[in-house]
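Why predict the complex rather than its parts? Because the way molecules touch one another can change local conformation, and only a joint prediction can capture that. The input here totals 500 residues.
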Amino acid sequence: MKAAKRPMIEVSGVSKYFGSFQALGDISFDVSDGEKVVIIGPSGSGKSTILRSINGLETIDRGRITVGGMDVSDPRTDICKVREEVGMVFQSFNLFPHKTVLENLTLAQVVVRKRGAREAEEIAMELLRKVNIAEKADAYPAKLSGGQQQRVAIARSLAMNPKAILFDEPTSALDPEMIGEVLDVMKTLAREGMTMVVVTHEMGFAREVADRVIFMDHGMIVEEGTPEHFFTNPTHERAKLFLSQIL
Amino acid sequence: MIDVGDGAAIPHKNDAGLFTAWRIAFFGSIVLCLFLAFGRPDQYMAIFLFVPDGILITFKVTVGAILLAIVFGLIAGLGRISSNRLINGTASLYVEIIRGVPLLVQLFYIYYALGRFVKIPDMLSAIIAMAFCYGAYMAEIFRAGIQSIPKGQMEAALSLGMSRGQAMRQVILPQAFKVVLPPIGNEFIALLKDSSLVSILAVADLLRRGREYASETFNYFETYTVIALIYLIMTLFFSKLIGIMEERLNEGR
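Output of the joint prediction:
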């Protein structure tokens, strides 16, 4: 038995191909408990693909990904167990449109976590208050703004008490004036010690929150380091070029 | 000249013009029936008294067949999107074969094929035959309905730890149901009309009762006028009912 503290998420030597196109080339990184890792890079660089591989929404062709010691790529692993422990927040929110905000939060608690309806609702309301949207509990998602929907989506993910949350460009589909409210919720989570892997174009957020920044391009990790290092003194040309374009 | 509007200007189905057309057809048929029955009782009253048990049979066949077809269709539709090759292949084969053979031929075939192996009542075997055929069309409706739900919905459900089956039941199918209700309503109307084909198979539905009456009395014109009017009243009634159900569902959003 390995009693030593292993990283919560271990990605080692992961490659993936779409046909002959190499989407990911030998990606390795770890995320330890409570760490905030921000993955940035130009579109098509594979950052969403690697994020989605962590909870098995994408399959990988080579390498290994473990989450809390469970091997995601092993077909014998119950992938549902992995997903219970790792929440995910999507660019397009993906709230369930046929359920109210409250039901969005209680559904998986009842179906997956087997909580009673009363308990699930109490947890849901507490989380809705936390993301500042409790007054919309009985509304349908279509009645909410993008920023409100994304906050509900974060609360829905939290309702499962995940050990880590993956954010896949959570603010990219939002109008500019709504980005702040979502980032604020994410910052709160970060302060509370949630383990987070965030794919984003929000450099201010990366700078403020990240323990570590991973820069990807063409399916490879080009540069990895602290935000100070990455934003002030990047080593690689491509990272410099990317920063000069985006900042 | 027919005045064709652009997309946005195509009249909504609730618009007064279309509603009026429905009203003229529906109430006109009823008034005509009443007029024939009571205005010309010598020729028509007997027909109206003779056919009602046929209406009941037609109704039973239609409702039985649509319910069974929904079951067949849902199973085959899920099969059509299955990643399991055997299941997918079987479902696809079912759909392709059924859609390529005329309904009347299938009715004969299933009716007599079933009759060779098991002894089941005529009406039940007619219902099974109709359902088997309509199930194939239903399968495509369900497949399209399920596939019309954005991929992100399944991904969101999975990433909350749900199994594929749970995600399908809790998240995808409830949404797909709203999408498929209008086309299923259309299938119901089509099935109501096609149910007249079972009159060939010793099932005493509305059309068969009409034929029986006409061949006894030789009042072909009068009989089939009444039969057509009754079918028309039934289809118009149900298309309205389905329209109202759709609206109710849309309001629920």
